[in-house]
Amino acid sequence: MTTRLNRAALDHARELIGKSRVVRDERDDWSEHAPSADDENAFIDKHGWAEFALWHLGEDPDASEETKQRYTFPYGDFARLHRCAVISLESRAAQNDHDEIARAAKRLLDELDGD
Hints:
By secondary structure, the chain is an alpha+beta fold. The chain is built from six helices and five strands.
């Protein structure tokens, strides 16, 4: 898998921070706050794949465009960025040698915690 940083999603995440559309939750909350598969499907049905992609910092260009497998490292609930999601994805990205994504997540955390 060749996961790369989804720069449009990074810009979207920064925009959410700038608009204070964030949840300042704790590290381990993401398992409870993450959208379910049904939530994801409903969002895709209503908003399409391009909007779904904006909520994921990772993108696998080798996967088909209109599949969930293409988009990785989610950071929010389709309404707000969740601090716990960014913490979780930074850790997973670093553990799996996705350095660019891990650095982007760290910068998001710095922006989030600095305001």
